[in-house]
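Deliverable D4.2, example record:
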Amino acid sequence: MDLETTGFPTDPEAGILEFGAVLLDPGSDAVTTVATLVRPPGGIPAAIQRLTGITEAAAADAPTIAALSPQLTELLSGRVLVAHNAPFERHFLSRLVSPALADARYLDTQDLLALTHPDSPDLRLESFSRALLGTEERHRALDDALDTARVVSRIAADSRSGSERRYSVARRAFEAFAPDSPWLLLLGKETAENGEAPSPFVRIEAGGEPPVPFDEEAIAQVLGDAERGARHFPGYRARPEQAELAHHFTRVLRDGGTLLIEGGTGVGKSLAYLSALIPFALERNARGERGPVVISTRTKLLQDQLLTKDIPAAARFLGYPELRALSIKGRANYGCERRLAATLAEGTEPSIFAEDRLAYAVLAACAGTRPYGELGSVPGAWLRRYAPLADLLRRSVAARAEQCTREQCAAQPDCPLGARRRALGAAHLVVANHDLLLRWPPDYPAFAHAVVDEAHELADVADEVYALEVRPEDLLDRLDKIFGRPGGRSGDALLPGGVRRRTRADALAWRRGLQQDLAELGRGLAPLASEFGEVQVPEHPGPDFDAA
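Output generated by the structure prediction step:
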């Protein structure tokens, strides 16, 4: 079922604008659809009219929700109500149709999709209808109810085919942490997982183009081929400025040295340097030269865009589908097998509330399905929906070297970070970020060639990388590492159990005292801070800083 409304649940004046439902009954193959417009008491905001296409005139002759309430109550009573973001429907139905509908049984498809597709960019219905059905959301009640049913049906069918590992991962997560969930029945029984282990490198489809050699004129010629470009880049046009940039990149890669260059907006600098880098990297590999070519960007978001969009398209365009490209981020972005297992073990304890267990199921699904075990970029929609998840993710990665040494990591064959690190040596092209570039670990493959995209940001990143930093949460985390977290499991604590029990009361007092001292420090520094929260300590601090 689905509702279109004139506002959000936080707006007390918002009303129901349209109701749509797909009715299914056990033991029957019949499918019944119900749809009706509703005349809201306060009119339809212009933004809602644009979104739904429902105008004031269209709803003028529709019945009011008060007139429809008896029919809707009879229609929905005794049924399991399935909706995408079901709390939204529960709020409006219980407030405007019948208070009894607050106690109806609701199933939220977001709880299913959060586990089957934790690699989705968000939890919106339109994202799943686009990805799974190839359709666009119309923001009409019956259409969205039908799309919700189709998405659920598609997941049921795909899970039974065993074609994708994600459904086995989701099934095991439900079994471990939410075995009473009806969604587990939808996913069926365990099936064999087909195919080989996923490649650590980005997938590049064959484009049918002849490879472009690492040659200045050849690269310029292919960049000027608008017909070839249009086959791989929508709206492609040849740009002389782009070809000139590629000339510069080709020369410095061929002859050595350092190049500092600025590309204007709209020039297409990414394709300019990729057109030189990709043939260069493959030629080096053919000569037996070791070490990847590195591209560094300012943000992890740009890293992902380069790896998933720009590089595959450029490799097809240049005729190099065999290119091995991957991204690498800081260790805090990848699940640590040892810490992840310890965190997930908590989710099976009887003391965990049932509503919190689903957060552990989501964590297991993220670790098993998100590309390369990457947990550092789980979208905010998951964090907002499952309150404990942010803390579970934090405790499932090894953000600091002492939390999991490289020796410990190497001993864990399925560690996502370890697997990512091992794949670096076989890559032609590695996409890093400025922060990691400046901290490049000694056991990562050495490299001799790098393109620093957005180099003007490098100095600011260096300030952050090379500064000494003390965060209150880090201090408390280290204390918890020694004595165990208050009110939580202490199996991960460093002190032996007997010592920990004898010092528990003192440890809690130290923790409270440290929190109070840090809070007092913050209050003392607050009057000295700028509007951005920064405090610049002068070379000769005065009495104000003594007091702080």
